[in-house]
Amino acid sequence: MDNKTIDNIVWWIPFKKLRNSVREYLLEINNLNNKLYQINDKINITERSMYDNYIDLYAKIRKLTPQGYIDFIDIDIVRHCNLNCYSCNHFSQLAKEEYYNIEIFENDIKRLYELSNGLIKKFHILGGEPLLNKNCKDYFYLVRKYFKNS
Fold this sequence. Notes:
The protein is mainly α. It is 55% helix and 11% strand. The protein has helices at residues 3-10, 16-64, 102-116, 136-146; strands at 70-78, 120-127. A two-stranded parallel sheet has the order 1-2. Helix 3 links the parallel strand 1 and strand 2. Helix 1 packs across helix 2 (16-64) and helix 3 packs parallel to helix 4. The longest helix has 49 residues, at 16-64. The chain starts with a helix and ends with a helix. 7% of the residues are buried.
């Protein structure tokens, strides 16, 4: 708030002494308000700087520290597909009809659990067309059985 605005506020006060007192009071409030804005700006700059430093430090530590988990595993439970997608890069429509044996899958998942201590973030169960496998839900059940947090 500038002096002109303050004068526009206090012009109607009939007593000069009171008017000047109110003007001084408003100027003081205005000065304090400006100081608060300056302090707030400094705090925001400091917070922003601290946050940026934290992010940089976190990124550096993450690069230096070995990851304790595997980000994701792709598992093909079926090779063939009943679609004829023009842009298919798996050539699944050319594969013979075969399914991943559920017993072998369970042994593989169990061994994977032992090797990774259960620290795998995501499983991608895929293939040509995974839903062609009639036991598709059993594969999900086995993954959830051994990897409860994935």
